[in-house]
Amino acid sequence: MEVEYSKDAEMEKLLEDLKNSNVKKEDWEFHDNYKPVYSTGKGLNRKVVEEISEIKKEPDWMRRFRLKALEIFESKPVPTWGPDLSGIDWENTNYYNRPDEVNSTKWEDVPDEIKETFNKLGVPEMEQKYLAGSVAQYDSEGVYHSLKKVWEDKGVVFMDLDSALREHPDLVKDYFCKAVPATDNKFAALNGAVWSGGSFLYVPKGVQIDMPLQTYFRMNGEATGQFEHTIVVADEGSKVHYIEGCTAPRYDRNSLHSAIVEIYAKKNAHARYTSVQNWSKSVYNMPTKRAWVDENAKMEWVGGSLGSKVTMLYPSSYLRGPYATTHNLNVSLAGPGTVKDTGAKALHLAPHTSSRIIAKSISIEDGKAIYRGLLRMNKGAEHSKSHVQCDALLINDNSTSFTYPHDEIYEPTATFGHEATVGRIGTEELTYLRSRGLSEDEASSMIVLGFLDDVMKEIPMEFAVEMNRLIKLEMGKLGAVG
Amino acid sequence: MVPELKIKDLKASVEGKQILKGVNLTVKGGEMHALMGPNGAGKSTLGNVLIGHPNYEITGGSIVLDGIDLTNKTPEERARAGLFLAFQSPVAVVGVKLSTFLRTAYRQTHPEDKVTLTEFYDRMKVHMKKVGLDESFMSRSVNDGFSGGERKRFEILQMVMLRPKIIILDEIDSGLDVDALKLVADEIRDYYSENVGFLIITHYQRILKNIEPQFVHVLKDGKIVVDGDNSVSLRIEEEGYDWIKN
Questions:
Q1: How distant is the Cα of B55 from the closest Cα of chain A, in angstroms?
Q2: Residue A440 and residue B74: Cβ atoms within 8 Å?
Q3: How many domains is chain A built from?
């Protein structure tokens, strides 16, 4: 029972935190007075893209890639099959901002105002406690990155993608936009044209990193687009856990975010990608996240999607080699006025591949949570299997949830299953907990957290605490629940 | 101070239907009361109304504990005042860990007690053993996948851990086999003191063999029609409820 104790102590701390969460939205949705030194101004055209490449002193192939991506972006219509995207203000978006100075690995060298922002976010403390190395992104470019020497000695590369492009151009070229080509979708093309920042992580063959590597970044600057591009390469037999999390300041205008995350899990590798996103209520969050999973490799996606106005996110795994597996856990919180169109894609392209997807959503007030999934099993993906579980919790009478699973099964020996549940916070459960002394809010939070329990266990503790607080905030605002 | 629960002319309805039609009952510390009655008399309704279940509407009368009027109070306020109901059919709350739930509930009902987590769990383990629940239940979800008997044992565990003053046990013996019933009855007797009053709601006399009440009341058609001692329960066992007139 000793292990149980420490777990309980953590839970206790977590609940204590929850109880004391008097934090108001204004406290964490802060602005500071930091002004970007350079901005390409509003709007997007060929000149803007060339300017970005020029400022970054990129190799010619990247400049050409950006321009090609821009053409693709312009040729593709805004997708209309999902949530309403008409609110995206393309003309009034800044596509590039550069913060003061270039990257610095020393904390002392980080500009004071930025440091203050990080302090508010608790970055240095978190780093001490959790991080093996970190790259923190501010505005559109990384300004602070550090990497523990021990990993460097083993050949691990962990830096922002701009730096990686300068220091390891061939390595970057091998993986850049291979899993997610610019032709994939309009937002991927946009990222290709104006990408800036993001992380590059390369783990050499056989290197096992047990501590998670983490990036902690946030958006800042009104109507600033964020187009970071992250590449994680887990070479053969390696193991890595990459964590990404962010909080965003409050915006007055719609803000666009369109990231690309590419993960390459080579033969026998084990890669885990955890991301907790907490965008401001004005953000359109349109990332494209995809993993190539080779023979006997394992890919795990763990995600918490909070905040934003509209999110469309479907982390995908291409199971390319025999015995490749993917696990996908996602929690979506669709607060008032929010649309969460999230899900997962698993493409079984080789025999004996397996996928397991667990998606949980919570809808509050008129929040709308949608599960949209793709399961494809190619002919020849013999004895592959998949299981998809979608659970929705509706908090209010006007809350909604929809499920759109799409299956394409071309292999007769493949097996797959779907489970879907929709629940509400029941009067009996609430009354039971309240009859033992818990307040209505406390009881509701406990039921919601209970609903998320199997996913929460997979989320790092500090994120779980943050998610708790946010759920508590969203529910507390409503007063009475039910 | 010896606690006292005063139920005065209590009337309550469910979905517009009048169930309780004026119940009068006083339970004091050191007293063991049994509330019996035929099916549909309103016994469980009384338990739910006392704990403040939102589906029941109080249409008249009052509930007062130690001079504090609980009639319009929320379930949590009643619990914090020292009222406890062991539910007839406790619901499962998926994902809410039993130990965490109990710890949180204890802190709400006893904010002044600075007992440490370890002390609290040590005490919990002692009582789990007494009611016959394995320690592994600590990390299970509340009532999730529990058998009927396990749920009842957990209700009694909650009672002893939360240390309420006035306790209502609604059909606590249902779902328990003879051995389990003995364990539960022992735990109830151990907890029973001058500072604790019990109201045992039961349809059958079975549990009253294990716990002898000083007072037996019969509820029929929403009203208490008989106030007596344990001989009433013995007569009910032999003759049923037919001899009782409204």
A1: 8
A2: yes
A3: 2
